[in-house]
Specification:
By secondary structure, the protein is mainly alpha-helical. Helix content is 80%, strand content 0%. It starts with 7 loop residues before the first helix and ends with a helix.
Amino acid sequence: AGLGSPLLPGLLAGFEGGMIGYAIYGGVFGQEELYHFAIVDLGQVPFVFFVLATWLTRRASGRAPTMRGTATAFARTPVVLAIAAGVAGSALGLGPVLEAPPLGEAVLRALGLVGAMTTPLMAIVIGYSTRLRRGSLGTPLRTVAVRMTIWVALAAAFNAIVIAGLLHFDRLFQAAVMTMA
């Protein structure tokens, strides 16, 4: 899909927080500050499922999915279930309870290691399956340039007006918005 493609709006609308955003933000600002990025990501996840996925389905099939079907698919998605479980577990104060016994600590550490491997493993899989040909990167690079120009400008404006201006959130929230963009 190039700059003249009818799919371009879809390429410009979604974000990849899961495999790349969390790794970048956590690597730069530390795991203890990752909640800033998670809060920003919580805002974009419903958008992706309810707006972007609906738009893409309509583009691909010519039919708009029902709100009930979209909500059901959203509620059954493993990522959404994991987010809900994490938020509920945090609200219930399960972290210290799970970490206290040696088995709980071991399981949480193992899950942390598996989680840390997600980004490099996905990069290996994508890299292995990618076949580059001469001239094949021009259109994707132009699309990325357009996307970055738009989203960095919008993120900077959103940070100035909403994050810092209206909400008075700290610079780590501003960094989370820029990382998402």
